[in-house]
Automatic annotation (TrEMBL), chain B:
HAMAP family xrefs: CcmE
Protein name: Cytochrome c-type biogenesis protein CcmE
Gene (name only): ccmE
Species whose genome carries this gene: Novosphingobium pituita
Primary localization: membrane
Compartments where located: Cell membrane; Membrane
Coiled-coil annotated residue ranges, if any: none
Cytoplasmic side: 1-10
Length: 647, 150
């Protein structure tokens, strides 16, 4: 019954999306003015219905209704409750329902709170959002129905892939999806603005909080995903340039560029066409990512079921939306009037430079990700990994970081290099000193440059606060400073991990020990342990820092029964100056246990930096929204007074 | 500020952006030709050996009775074959759970002398998660290898 209700709600939501699109298209004509009032309520109702459908799916997983195909194939009655709930989106159909849910709730949210956008543009935007949603409704209902019943209820569920049975599953996919799908709102804004030819500072100010919101979630989702891969894979790495990771990085790069160009548009009425273009590109990258991940052309824990029809379905959607938006852009871009001018040395110019650098990195990552698929079509199998991505993206990333240090100190419109040069002397010295010292210590080129630039940027990113009254500094300025500082922190963590990690591989008898960096590690014993739905071998390892008191670590090798599978559970010891990472391997024929140890100095800075970047974004968002609310209240008051005076 | 017209400024920006993107594309193409790691089956590897030290992937079957553990307990030597040719492989590290003799494997690494030194081994994980290269290998023997392991 619940499954049928969920399905019915989904169909009704799809019908409302169709209505929203048609009414929106008609309402923009003079004859259709009567329809203007229905758009917002329809968008909100659509959101409510999809939320109901999503709640129905969660209910089916919580109660483990084995007559539903999706539940029987992906859940198990003996699974811990948190994984029953999170397991609802740990599969293809459920995750697509999550996608559509976020997309429709996003549209509903826009309909509910967006007050700044010109009414015509808002109608075009909501119609655009409905148009995009319709494609995904069709995909869900026609090829990936999450509510399909089995002819006979299954006696027991097949369970969830052990790699996914982790608390990360509860947070990482929803966060990332809010980011991906949040960009659909930026896309619809761009399409709406192209339809009404209304691209200007007011439009940019209305669009900015939505871009910022999506970007914050993307940042946090990528940071969380990286940490999850780091501790769960047991390979000691935090980024593998895996196509699935690239699929999340590409929208982030585009959204970062968009976030900065939309600020230029809002403040200076420049970069009009470019901003609209980035709005289209950012969500296109989300969809390319979905296509890569869900079409089955990649094999990964993220590619749930290989079904070629689904791949072609997403490809068609991709062609319609990206192609359509680019066509609209091509037709309308020349009618978007030119923006304001700016000099070669100015805030705008630095933002343009970094926009281009971000797009360069985006291009590099896109080409590297698609290249293996392309060559495979010609029967040549290749894989592209860090030896390509690291140096080639660094060619664009490092100049970008230099300009990031300078840009926020420059004035809008026109500025002189001489004015800011003295201020930048300190960060420049830090950068040169850091890189030089790293070279002297025989650190490789890229990590050495990373250490220098990270140090320099960390100092330079704080400079916009100098001479300011910190209490009166607006929140968006704080946000920018903290985000830029966070990026410097993350860069320092990445460079330090690459430069100074120590890895030891050893086969140990219980009682034996090894020195890893500053730690003496001894394997005390190996015990069998049991969890709710797994059994494991657990090592007890004591770690002594420079002869101090021992700290116990318990890495495990877990075995799951439903479905059968194994997973290594690494043990981490976090200290202010780094992380100790211990993995338990197999028992050798001679009874020794394989152990893998890493000492990674300052590696947590990578994720701390990512959190800071997201936190800075949040501060900026709060600052912007608070200002908007204040303005709206003021406008209301004036209108109220006028009304009273008029009487 | 010079008297550039807004229209000219837009043109200059467009040219710079295009130049940067074309540059990125060319750079990517050049780097890919240098850095992409090709996939080999043992007979290809023996017939057309890649440059020493260049990152490549080797896929085939772990020969029965070929895994030998070195005295350090963590380095193994084994032979990857495809029925036509055999390549000795060395690997230091924790092997994946389904890495067993007589089963398929993809090794990421490079040729050093006559030995393939692997940095990483990908084994057939389970029915759902097969390394992409093992799903449809280019040569017929390799397909047979995968069929054997099922």
């Amino acid at each position: 019954m619940i499954a049928e209700l969920g399905l019915a709600a989904l169909w009704m939501a799809a019908a409302l999306a169709a209505l929203q699109l048609i009414a929106g298209a008609l309402a923009l004509r003079p004859q259709g003015a009567a329809l203007r009032g229905v758009i917002r309520p329809v968008a909100m109702m659509q959101g409510v219905l999809v939320a109901l459908a999503f709640a129905a799916l969660i209910w089916l997983f919580v109660t483990t209704d084995l007559s539903v195909k999706l539940v029987a194939e992906n859940s198990h009655s003996a699974k811990p409750m948190i994984f029953k709930i999170a397991g609802a989106w740990g599969n293809h159909e459920g995750s697509m329902l999550l996608w559509v849910t976020i997309m429709s709730l996003g549209g509903a949210f826009v309909a509910l709170v967006e007050k700044r956008l010109a009414e015509d543009t808002l109608i075009a935007t909501l119609a655009g959002q409905a148009f995009v949603s319709l494609g995904f409704y069709a995909f869900l209902l026609l090829s990936s129905n999450p509510f399909e019943r089995l002819p006979q209820p299954a006696p027991e569920g097949a369970g969830l892939n052990p790699l996914l049975q982790d608390i990360g599953l509860a947070f990482h996919p929803p966060t990332l999806y809010v980011g991906y799908v949040g960009l659909s709102i930026a896309f619809s804004f761009a399409v709406g603005a192209l339809v009404t030819r209304d691209v200007g500072p007011a439009f940019a100010r209305a669009m900015r909080p939505w871009v910022l919101g999506a970007w914050i979630f993307l940042t946090l989702g990528i940071t969380a995903g990286s940490y999850w891969a780091y501790y769960t894979l047991g390979w000691g790495g935090w980024w593998f340039w895996d196509p699935v990771e690239n699929a999340s990085l590409m929208p982030w790069l585009a959204a970062t560029a968009l976030l900065h160009s939309v600020s230029v548009l809002a403040a200076r009425n420049a970069l009009r066409a470019w901003t609209v273009m980035l709005g289209v590109v950012a969500f296109s990258m989300s969809m390319v990512g979905t296509f890569l991940v869900r079409s089955g052309i990649l094999t990964s824990v993220h590619a749930f079921a290989v079904d070629p029809t689904r791949g072609s379905f997403i490809l068609i959607l991709l062609a319609i939306y990206i192609g359509g938006a680019l066509l609209l852009f091509g037709l309308r871009a020349s009618t978007v009037t030119e923006g304001a001018r700016f000099a070669f040395v100015s805030r705008e110019a630095s933002l343009v430079f970094n926009n281009v650098m971000l797009c360069g990195i985006l291009g590099i990552v896109l080409v590297g990700t698609l290249y293996p698929l392309l060559t495979e079509a010609f029967g040549v199998k290749v894989s592209v990994g860090p030896p390509y991505f690291n140096p080639v993206s660094a060619i664009f990333a490092f100049p970008m970081i230099v300009v990031m240090a300078v840009g926020p100190l420059l004035r809008w419109k026109d500025d002189g290099a001489r004015r800011v040069a003295p201020v930048l002397a300190i960060p420049a010295l830090v950068a040169l000193g850091g890189a030089g010292a790293a070279f002297a210590a025989h650190v490789a080129l890229l990590p050495a440059l990373g250490l220098g630039l990270g140090g320099g940027l960390a100092v330079a990113s704080l400079l916009p606060l100098r001479g300011r009254n910190l209490r009166r500094t607006p929140l968006p300025t704080w946000g920018m400073v903290i985000s830029h500082f966070g990026l410097a922190v993350a860069l320092l963590g990445m460079a330090s991990e690459a430069a100074f990690s120590i890895e030891k591989l050893a086969a140990l008898n219980p009682g034996e020990s090894r020195q890893v960096g500053p730690y003496a590690l001894s394997l005390d014993r190996i015990d069998p342990v049991a969890g709710p739905n797994w059994t494991a071998l657990q090592a007890t390892v004591s770690a002594r820092y420079a002869g101090g008191a021992p700290v116990v670590l318990n890495p495990q090798a877990r075995t799951f029964a439903n479905p059968p599978g194994t997973r290594t559970e690494s043990a981490l010891l976090t200290r202010w100056n780094g992380q100790l990472y211990v993995v338990l391997g197999e028992e050798g024929e001679d009874g020794r246990w394989q152990m893998r140890f890493w000492w990674k100095p300052f590696v947590p800075l990578i994720w701390l930096g990512g959190l800071l970047v997201g936190f800075g974004g949040l501060l900026a968002l709060i600052g912007r929204v608070a200002r908007d609310v204040k303005r709206l209240v003021a406008v209301d008051k004036i209108a109220f007074r006028r009304e009273r005076q008029g009487r | 500020m010079s008297a550039i017209k807004a229209k000219h400024q837009r043109l200059v920006l467009l040219v710079i952006a295009l130049a940067a993107l074309v540059g990125a594309g060319l750079l990517a193409a050049w780097a890919l030709s240098k850095q992409a790691s090709y996939f080999y089956v043992p007979s290809d590897l023996v017939a057309h050996p890649p440059e020493q030290g260049r990152a490549v992937r080797l896929g085939g079957m772990v020969e029965k009775g070929s895994i030998r553990t070195m005295p350090d307990g963590v380095t193994i030597h084994f032979i990857v074959g495809d029925g036509k040719a055999r390549v000795p492989v060395r690997f230091s590290g924790i092997t994946p759970d389904l890495f067993v003799e007589g089963s398929g494997v993809v090794a990421e690494g490079r040729m050093e002398g006559q030995t393939f030194v692997a940095d990483n081994l990908l084994a057939k994980h389970d029915e759902k998660y097969v390394p992409r290269e093992m799903k449809d290998m280019t040569s017929a023997q390799a397909k047979a290898v995968v069929a054997d392991t099922k």
